[in-house]
Structure formats: structure tokens, C-alpha cells
Amino acid sequence: MKHEQIEGDTIDYHPCRYGNCRIFFRGPRKSLKDRYVTFIGSTETYGKGIESPFPALVERATGITCVNFGCVNASVDAFLPETTIHDACHGAALNIVQVMGAHNMSNRFYTVHPRRNDRFVRASSVMRAIYPEVDFTEFCFTRHMLASLYQLSPERFEIIQSELQMAWRARMRSFVEEIGAHTLLLWFSETLPSDAHLSDRPDPMNGDPLFVTRSMIDELRPHVQGVILVQPPARKGRDEGKSPLFSPEAHDMAAEVIADALAKRLQS
């Protein structure tokens, strides 16, 4: 369980696993026998640094068991091979899937760690050919690497971005089709979905979910019950290459919107 510990964090996350899943999730472990809702996502869903993240707040507000399948820094890649999670989603009354960024996925240009998806593992020969002047051994994290490549050449970077967006489209559609149409997408970000070009964004490499556009979300709408939009105030204290955490107030806001959406769809 060593790899699940969060450095410098004093919160007891009660890490647990479900079935044969290789990922440790935030506990306490919930029963999957009675009526429940699953929450699948990244750092925000897990609730890193937050005593009561929005899945727990939704459970408190609605009385419905909410299973937190959040994984710190995860992309959809972390969940695609986990059949235990798929089975849990099949049995859920509803699935809430956070829209996760496109940067933490393995693709034809680079490989990420299969569970700690923010960890850069290696660059492909194709990537090295596009950026022959770059020493990729200097990078440990995907966002740092991508920010450096963008700064070096925004023109060449468009090739990388297009590949990531194409991979995201295919894998997100595959995932939501696998877990079932009784699914809501959750957009939890300081900005609303946009099709603006990367160069037109005020902070192009720090926006989350990174590289996901409005049109990409719209392509998934026919495969889910709907999209929940939560836009909390901008996070403070951004450091270079890092994304600070949302505040407890932001989680309160998300929980209120999600609980309202559940009430409309799960009325007995």
C-alpha cells in the first residue's frame, strides 16, 4: 500500500480495494449489495487533501450509498482494464464519471504508468523524431514534459495534442459504453468546456481537464444520460507544473449540483 500514501498528508483515507482491482481507493469500503451510485474520476473525486470530498457529501445529502472510485492523477486508462470496476458500474443505480484530462494516457508518442497515470515512463521513437533536441530522461511527470514541449514549439506540439485528443475520444467512448448508459459525466473545472485553440487560452498548460474540448464532450452526450457542469471559483496558488486542489467549498458546490441531479433521476 506504500504507493498509495500521499506525502505530507495527514488525512486518513482508509485505503481499500474492491475484488481483484489493482487500484487502492478511498475508504471506508462500501457494500455493493444494495442500491448505490459509483463515482469514477481523478484527484478531485478521490478528494486528496479534503476531509469530506463530494462523493461523501452527496451520500450525506441523499442517503444513497456513494462508492468512491476516485484515483489520484488518474486518466480513463486506469479504469479501462479493471473489470471489477466495470461490474460495479453495471450494478449501480447510476454512475458519475468525472471528465479527466487527456494528458495522462499512454499513446503512440509516450507511455505512462498504468495506475499512477501522471508518471511519464518513456517516449516513443516517433516522439523522439518530432523533438530530436529533447532529452526525455529529464522528465518524470507528463504535465511537466508537455509544458516543456509546448514552450519549445507550439507548432510541433499540435501533433501531440491531436493524438491525445483522438485517444481520449476513443477510450472515453469505449469506457462509457462498457459501464452502461446509466451514466452522467461530471465536468468539475474552473472554466466551462470550450473549443478555443490552445494558444488562445490564458494558461494553456494548466487548465483542467487538460486538452478536453466542448466538442469532445458533445460527442459523448448520445452515450450517457447527461453532463453535469460544476464551475467553482478559480483555485489559488498555482505553481509551475502543478495544479492546486479545490477547496472544501468547491466540493460543497459540486455535491449540491450532483445531489440535485441524482434526485431527478433516482426518484422512487
Task: Summarize the structure in words.
- The chain is of the alpha/beta class and 268 residues long.
- The chain has one domain (11-265): SGNH hydrolase (Rossmann fold, 3-Layer(aba) Sandwich), CATH 3.40.50.
- 33% of the residues lie in helices and 13% in strands.
- The protein contains eight helices and seven strands, in the order E-H-H-E-H-E-E-E-H-H-H-E-H-E-H.
- It has helices spanning 43-46, 54-62, 83-90, 125-130, 142-152, 154-179, 214-220, 248-265; strands spanning 36-41, 65-70, 94-98, 110-112, 120-123, 183-188, 226-230.
- A five-stranded parallel beta sheet has the order 2-1-3-6-7, with helices on both faces.
- Strand 4 and strand 5 (120-123) form a beta hairpin.
- The longest helix has 26 residues, at 154-179.
- It is globular, with a radius of gyration of 18 Å.
- The N and C termini lie far apart (40 Å).
